[in-house]
Amino acid sequence: MVYVVAVYDVEADRTRLFLNFLRRYLTHVQNSVFEGEITEGDLEEIKQELESMLEPGESVIVYRMSAEQYVSRTVYGEDPTEDDQFL
Amino acid sequence: MVYVVAVYDVEADRTRLFLNFLRRYLTHVQNSVFEGEITEGDLEEIKQELESMLEPGESVIVYRMSAEQYVSRTVYGEDPTEDDQFL
Question: What is the pTM of this model?
Answer without folding.
Answer: 0.83
